[in-house]
Amino acid sequence: MPVLFNSILKQVDIDPAHVILLRHQDKKAAPARTPYDLWRDNPSAFDLYQSIQSFDNRPKFVRAPIWASFVVTPGGATMFVGIYYASYRSVLAEDTPNPHNDGVERAGTCDTYDVRLDDKLSDISGRLYVDWGDGTRAWIQRADNQNKEVVELHPEFKEPEFPGLLNFIAHVSEIPGMYKNWVSVLQEARGVYLLSCPRTREQYVGSACGSEGFWQRWQNYASDGHGGNIALMSREPSDYQVSILEVAGSASTDNDILQMESRWKTKLQSREMGLNKN
What we know:
Elements: H1 5-11, E1 19-24, H2 35-41, H3 43-51, E2 52-53, H4 58-62, E3 66-72, E4 78-91, E5 96-97, E6 104-105, E7 111-118, E8 128-131, E9 140-142, E10 149-153, E11 169-171, H5 180-188, E12 191-196, E13 203-208, H6 213-224, H7 230-233, E14 241-247, H8 254-268, H9 270-273
Helix pairs in contact: 2-3, 5-6
C-alpha cells in the first residue's frame, strides 16, 4: 500500500483539515534564486518569500493555520521542506525587495503573513518527495481534499551527482535554477554546445569561451531567449534543449574552441539546415 502524506501528518498530531499544501515554484525567478535555492541557501529569505502573498489567495490562506510547504527541485520533483504555522498580519505596509528576483513588492499591493517554522517533521525536510499530481498550476491545495502519495524518502538531503559533461542534457529554462554542484562543473568547462528547438527541429551550434564556461553562455539564453544570435532572434521564443558536443582542454585557446565549433557546424550541416549563419 502507498504511504500517504496525511498519514504522516496524523502521526505528529496534525489534523489535515487544518493544513494547506503549498508547492513553491517560480519559473520567472532570477538565476540561483528559485524557491528551492532560497530554502537551501537562505532560510530567512525563503520565509520572507512565503510571507508575502497576493490578495487573491487570502481566502485560501486564512482558512488553515498550518502550511505544509514543498519546493520544486531543479529536476522537477516536489520536495517537502517543512511545517509552518501562519497567520494573517496585514496589507504590506512598505515597499519590500523580493527575495527571489530583482523586483520590489509595492506597499499596499499584497498581503503579509506571520510565518513560523515548526520542528514537527523537520527530520524529513529535504528528504521526502510526493506526487503532486497533474494539477501543478494549483499550487495551493487543501490537505484534507488532496492526500498526496509519498514517492520517495531519502536517507538524507543530498543533491544528485553531475551526470558528466558529455551526458548532460537540459532545457534552457532549467539553467537558472540548476543544482549548485552542477553549476560549478559547467562554469569550469568550455567548449562546443548544441541547441535544439523542440518545435521546429532546428539546431544551433555554439561555443563557450568565457571565464564562466558553458554556464555563463547558457545564462544568456535563459535571460533573453536568443543570446544575441541573429537566427535565434528571428524565431519565436523556444525552450531549447542544450547539450555539449565537445569539451576543450585546459590549454585550449579561444581560437582552438572556435575551430572546434566550425568543425561541428560542418559535421551537422547547421549552416545549411540549421540556425547558424556563419
